[in-house]
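RECORD TYPE: inverse folding
INPUT: structure tokens
STRUCTURE:
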């Protein structure tokens, strides 16, 4: 049940419902209206129709779609909604978009094609040729496919700028803190409150693109008063920017459990010899120490750590957490759609999430536009969203099984598997995979019982066409 304190309304703007669509093209909302005493809202967080009408008449900003969060998922959701003619507001907790960066910053060419992204030069840091997997004994095997390392904060700003150019309204420094159903027995939208003078906002549909915070999953409750989705498991990701890093244009992914438990380490090259050197690990408390040890014990020791260009001072390490429980059980609800990390969409083996966030945003906008046009915002109508993403995204359970099987192997077994792979893993067909399996089992028959086949397939599912990056 919603906390009654949270449903108190503070009037800060004077918009009439019919005129209240966000002003197209504005980057920031302005609001210096006098604050009026708040009305009290009772009864399980529902606004009764009369109160709802008066609230709207007196100063709530209304829109078709409110997008929460301006990462890749939110930026693209706002862009796709605005392109479909929906009045769209996008809010972002931070005062600027894209920083602090919490991403290795790579995206595949296949992702860009799939999303019709024509990247401007300034958001591209480096063109790359694929992933090189480095097994514990140093064996190197490639998954070649073209892609980019981005200046991710510039990429995110570019997408949001495109959304604004299409008519979306952006509110920076706005944090969603509560949501209440409006419309009485027939659902008519969400009345959203939070930090920032653009609130309250009444949206027919909210698209939650708040990343790992998954804010709407906490704010919205099911009938049994449980949250829409329980908090999932996360892993820690951390990296440094280093300079003078040698590269042949591949992303180097080290599967070295000694430093990254059930995770991996990376060197992601950027322009002018810069690179992100980092790791993702299930051992969250040791993440920084393990990364420092890895650098100390490898050729990276000779190189300099620098602050990334978007950071002026402070600790050079940057990163964040990544959801690893898979897609949430409820990715839609009455007037609500969850995208990107907020829906648990990340690729399990190497934890890429931008491609999935950007694509789920397309499905969300498509579903929202159709539902609004039909005048049906119900959960049932929005279930279309789940049908779209589940038909498209790779089978999470299968990849998780492969990932678990991989991490059940000892370092020695992983290296043996690496040695049995061809130099180019990306071009293995069914017969190629069978050959690797036979070769492996001949050398170490006991591996049959360690689900070596799913472990091998997990690499295949890390390719771009399966939303790996
Ligand atoms: C260290 C690291 C490395 C990674 N490397 C890669 C990689 O190389 N390639 C890749 O594809 N993926 C990578 N990922 C994953 C990728 O960063 C995420 O999957 C992707 O950013 C998800 O996008 P999103 O839009 O769903 O969420 P986010 O990018 O997290 O954006 C969510 C936004 O919502 C805002 N927000 C949160 N709560 C609120 C609120 N209450 N109100 C308003 N705004 C709010 C946040 O401030 C944030 O800006 C990496 C992740 C980490 C941590």
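DESIGNED SEQUENCE:
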């Amino acid at each position: 049940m919603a906390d009654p304190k949270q449903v108190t309304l503070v009037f800060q703007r004077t918009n009439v419902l019919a005129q209240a669509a966000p002003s197209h093209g504005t980057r920031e909302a302005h609001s210096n209206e006098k604050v009026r005493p708040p009305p009290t809202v009772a009864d399980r967080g529902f606004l009764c129709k009369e109160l709802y009408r008066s609230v709207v008449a007196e100063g709530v900003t209304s829109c078709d779609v409110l997008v929460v969060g301006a990462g890749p998922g939110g930026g693209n959701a706002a862009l796709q909604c605005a392109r479909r003619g929906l009045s769209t507001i996008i809010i972002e907790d931070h005062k600027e978009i894209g920083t602090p960066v919490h991403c290795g910053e790579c995206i595949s060419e296949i992702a860009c094609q799939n999303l019709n992204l024509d990247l401007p030069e300034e958001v591209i840091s480096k063109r790359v040729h694929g992933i090189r997997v480095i097994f514990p004994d140093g064996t190197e095997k490639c998954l070649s496919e073209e892609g980019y390392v981005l200046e991710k904060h510039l990429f995110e700003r570019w997408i949001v700028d495109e959304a604004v150019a299409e008519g979306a309204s952006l509110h920076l420094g706005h944090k969603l803190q509560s949501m209440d159903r409006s419309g009485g027995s027939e659902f008519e939208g969400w009345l959203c409150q939070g930090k920032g003078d653009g609130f309250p906002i009444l949206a027919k549909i909210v698209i939650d693109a708040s990343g790992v915070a998954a804010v709407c999953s906490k704010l919205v409750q099911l009938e049994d008063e449980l949250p829409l989705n329980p908090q999932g498991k996360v892993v820690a990701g951390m990296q440094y920017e280093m300079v003078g890093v040698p590269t042949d244009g591949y992303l180097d992914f080290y599967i070295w459990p000694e430093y990254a438990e059930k995770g991996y380490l990376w060197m992601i090259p950027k322009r002018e010899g810069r690179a992100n050197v980092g790791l993702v690990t299930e051992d969250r408390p040791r993440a920084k120490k393990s990364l420092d040890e890895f650098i100390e014990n490898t050729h990276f020791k000779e190189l300099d750590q620098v602050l990334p260009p978007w950071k002026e001072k402070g600790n050079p390490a940057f990163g964040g957490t990544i959801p690893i429980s898979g897609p949430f059980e409820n990715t839609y609800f009455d007037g609500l759609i969850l995208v990107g990390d907020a829906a648990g969409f990340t690729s399990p083996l190497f934890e890429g999430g931008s491609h999935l966030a950007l694509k789920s945003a397309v499905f969300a906008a498509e579903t929202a536009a159709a539902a609004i046009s039909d005048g049906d915002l119900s959960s049932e109508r929005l279930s279309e969203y789940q049908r779209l993403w589940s038909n498209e995204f790779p089978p999470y359970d299968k990849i998780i099984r492969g990932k678990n099987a991989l991490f059940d192997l000892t370092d020695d077994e992983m290296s043996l598997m690496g040695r049995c792979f061809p130099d180019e893993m990306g071009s293995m067909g069914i017969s190629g995979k069978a050959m690797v399996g036979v070769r492996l089992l001949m050398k170490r028959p006991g591996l049959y019982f360690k689900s070596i086949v799913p472990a091998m397939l997990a690499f295949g599912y890390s390719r771009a066409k399966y939303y790996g990056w």
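NOTES: The two ends are 39 Å apart (CA to CA).
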